[in-house]
User: Which sequence fits this backbone?
């Protein structure tokens, strides 16, 4: 399988890329600038000791993959989706973005669709299967490969088969997925991120997470 991470040059994307590459998945880092994507891919490959990750401009990265993940600030959510929409038909699209209030990341500023995930699904239409995942896992937790992650990955989206694809990808990273049902649950999943950021600040920690019990 080939997985692309659009905006994978920032905080959240590299840890996802490293973990998938290490599991034998072909990974492409996407960026607005091909040269930046290539540079980040080179740095990550150096860490892996093998050339497992490629760098491409976002549209090429979207076109080349079967599964496309999006890790950009929410302010760039709509414009990035629109810039790659033509390349996403029949693909699984993993939305990692959280509509945090830029003035106060302990608060959400949800879009009219209800959540980033629902906005992505509305923008992309029924030909693209949007799945929310990884919103509650901190970037630095993902980035250190030897670090065991206790935080569950809540996975939601309207297509059951697409959720199963993403659940498989989460497991391959060594993380624990939870099938969180339909896309409207992304309102809760995305909001948990603001709650966790508040918990981090109040408790002077960096990586609070959530773990569902009783399943
Ligand atoms: N960081 C975390 O711990 C974390 C955890 C869970 C969820 N998230 C969510 O994941 C998403 C990405 O977070 P992040 O911390 O990785 O963000 P980030 O480092 O600030 O940005 C990621 C990448 O987005 C691209 N980007 C920035 N501004 C853009 C614009 N105006 N238009 C298009 N692309 C732009 C940049 O890539 P190029 O310059 O290469 O194009 C940048 O490297 C956010 O929605 C965040 O809420 C983050």
Assistant:
């Amino acid at each position: 399988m080939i997985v692309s991470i659009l905006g994978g040059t920032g905080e959240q994307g590299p840890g996802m890329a490293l973990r998938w590459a290490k599991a034998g998945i072909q990974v492409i880092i996407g960026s607005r600038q091909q040269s930046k994507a290539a540079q980040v891919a080179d740095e990550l490959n150096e860490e892996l000791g093998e050339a497992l990750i490629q760098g491409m401009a976002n549209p090429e990265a979207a076109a080349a993959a079967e599964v496309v993940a999006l890790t950009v600030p929410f302010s760039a959510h709509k414009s990035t989706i629109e810039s790659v929409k033509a390349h996403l038909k029949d693909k699984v699209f993993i939305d990692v973005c959280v509509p945090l209030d830029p003035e106060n990341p302990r608060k959400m500023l949800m879009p009219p669709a209800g959540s980033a995930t629902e906005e992505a699904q509305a923008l992309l239409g029924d030909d693209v299967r949007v799945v929310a995942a990884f919103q509650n896992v901190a970037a630095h937790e993902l980035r250190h490969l030897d670090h065991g992650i206790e935080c569950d990955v809540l996975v939601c989206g309207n297509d059951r088969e697409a959720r199963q694809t993403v659940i498989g990808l989460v497991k391959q990273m060594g993380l624990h997925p939870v099938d969180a049902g339909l896309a409207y649950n992304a309102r809760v999943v995305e909001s948990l991120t603001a709650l966790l950021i508040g918990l981090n600040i109040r408790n002077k920690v960096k990586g609070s997470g959530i773990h569902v019990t009783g399943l």
User: Anything to note?
Assistant: Residues 33 and 57 are 6 Å apart (CA to CA). The chain has one domain: 2-203. Residues 7, 9-13, 31-33, 36, 71-74, 76, 79-80, 96-98, 100, 135, 138-139, 193 surround NAP (CB under 6 Å).
